[in-house]
Amino acid sequence: MSYDDQNIFAKILRGEIPSIRVYEDDDTLCFMDIFPRADGHCLVIPKTPCRNVLDASEAQLTSVMASVKKVANAAMVGLSADGITIQQFNEGPGGQEVFHLHFHILPRHEGVALRPPGQAGDMDAIKKIAEKIASHIG
User: Fold this and answer.
1) pLDDT for the residue 118
2) Rounded distance between C-alpha atoms, residue 43 and residue 33, angstroms
3) Closest by Cα among 3, 49, 11, 42 to 24
4) In a designed cystine with 30, which of 5, 22, 115, 120 is the match (CB 3.0 to 4.6 A)?
């Protein structure tokens, strides 16, 4: 399978679609999921084309995982989370819907279930949560 540079995350990287950014470095971008399954649900992606883990370079995986760790730790502190769920899907049968490598970071609180997929979040609330996470990234 080939990489489609018209996927939504490629468009976010090019600034064609707005996003609520949490963290960015030379190689990766973290932004909020607008259909959050948990408060603080965000996504980390490489800035370079890559369909998923199956075609990712070692460099892409290294930089993305470093950012996942950084943002996950900031979400733990900034949102007083009890844990973090990290999800990553590969190809349609594996659950992947957007074909640009991405890791979901879902801050978790004891006794609070994940929301069902596909429910749009309140953008003002998402922005405030993003600010809390970003303020704890070192």
Assistant:
1) 94
2) 6
3) 42
4) 22
Nearest-angstrom CA–CA distance, 102 and 131: 21
* Architecture of the domain defined by 8-134: 2-Layer Sandwich (3.30)
Q: Are 137 and 110 in contact (CB under 8 A)?
A: no
Catalogue the E-assigned strands of the chain. 21-24, 28-32, 42-46, 83-87, 103-108
Q: Domain segments of the chain: what residues?
A: 8-134
Q: What are phi and psi of 135, to 5 degrees?
A: -70, -15
What tokens were used for 40?
A: 């603080």
Say which of 102, 104, 109, 136 is annotated catalytic: 102
CA distance 111 to 122: 22
Is 136 annotated as catalytic? no
Q: Tokens representing 124?
A: 């003002």
The pLDDT tens digits for 58-92 are 999 999 999 999 999 999 999 999 999 999 999 99
Q: What is the DSSP string of 13-48?
A: HTTSS---EEEE-SSEEEEE-SS-SSTT-EEEEESS
